[in-house]
Amino acid sequence: xxxxxxxxxxxxxxxxxxxxxxxxxxxxxxxxxxxxxxxxxxxxxxxxxxxxxxxxxxxxxxxxxxxxxxxxxxxxxxxxxxxxxxxxxxxxxxxxxxxxxxxxxxxxxxxxxxxxxxxxxxxxx
Length: 125
Fold this sequence. Notes:
The structure is a single chain. This protein is an all-alpha fold. It has one domain (about 5-10, about 25-125). It is about 80% helix and about 0% strand. The chain has five helices and no strands. Helix 1 (about 5-20) packs antiparallel against helix 2 (about 25-50) and helix 2 runs antiparallel to helix 3 (about 60-85). The protein starts with a helix and ends with a helix. Keywords: Membrane, Transmembrane, Transmembrane helix.
């Protein structure tokens, strides 16, 4: 079980008690949002790196198109991964390991902080 699985099930368990029918959708959205923000941070970092190295690999419009396509792929991958039987198997494993608890507000702040860092890095490039 990786970190994203643990974060997914933490969100799922938190929202299962409050919004039982929407818990899976909220947790899937959060994991997708977190992964896409990390992908955007890496993309901006490498764009700045390649610009300083004077490597012209891809135009900005093609890079944004690629990012949108990968973000859609990540959403569907998470939707399929956490919507079916694998979620039930991983949920059974998570019930055994209830050691780690996170503050839900700090977890929501994590992708927003990553987006802020991405913005700062984008302005520096």
